[in-house]
Amino acid sequence: MNADLRHDHHVIDCIVVGAGHNGLVTAAYLARSGYSVLVLEANSSVGGAAVSAEVFPGMGARVSKYSYLVSLLPPAIARDLAIDVPLARRRVASYTPDPADPRRALVIPSDDEQSLAANIEDISAEPDCSFLIDGMAVLRDINRALRWNLPTNGPKTLNGFVLEHLETIPEFNLCIQIDEYQIETLQIKDNIIKSLRIRRLAGDDPLVD
Predict the structure, then answer these.
(1) Do 59 and 45 touch, CB atoms closer than 8 A?
(2) Distance CA 128, CA 133 (A)
(3) How many CB atoms lie within 10 A of CB 131?
(4) Domain of 50: which CATH number?
(5) Burial class for 53, CB neighbours closer than 10 Å (0-12, 13-18, 19+)
């Protein structure tokens, strides 16, 4: 071996760039497999989207960036990495203000099916039968409230459903059709589609007279 290439430092097998939740999970799996891993992060803290932060100075309230979807953590990962995450169900699943009228908002309860349907119907009473829905709303909840058939065998949220079909994060708001649903993005922030307007094109909407 060339003497210039010799060193006494510990050899690193793998370098993971980014210490967000995906990077940390990757590094943990590699380390458990016996590899020496170095994780690089440009920010002063790790965790990425799986953390909360103080967004209103002086309010003392920490708001989740994306970690409220921790319930979607695959059980296999939690078992493999011995992660013990106690979960508590919230009374309100999501809240979306109406961009056209800040006095109105869509509040999606976690359990009350009747209230969920009433909230969606109230904010979306428009001639075209469209519905303003939070991007983080769970597809099963939307189907239950509107009696729709959005696919639930893939992404769990409306945001994930749209991004899977686009295969990229849109830079600007757009309108697309996926199967029988016309979907318009209304707000995109932090690589997440925050709110959308969606309308079923085929058949009569069961919530609209």
Answers:
(1) no
(2) 15
(3) 24
(4) 3.50.50.60
(5) exposed
Q: Are residue 106 and residue 195 in the same domain, yes or no?
A: yes
Contact 98, 197 (CB under 8 A): no
Q: Which two tokens stand for residue 128?
A: 């075209």
Sheet with 192-200, edge to edge strand ranges: 131-134, 192-200, 181-189, 175-178
Q: Which two tokens stand for residue 160?
A: 């994930």
* Location of structure tokens 């690089």: 40
Domain containing residue 40: 3-80
Query: pTM for this structure?
Result: 0.47
Residue showing tokens 């992060």 = 41
Nearest to 89 by CA among 112, 105, 114: 112
Residue range 44-101, pLDDT digits in tens = 888 887 787 777 777 777 777 665 555 567 788 889 999 887 766 666 666 666 777 7
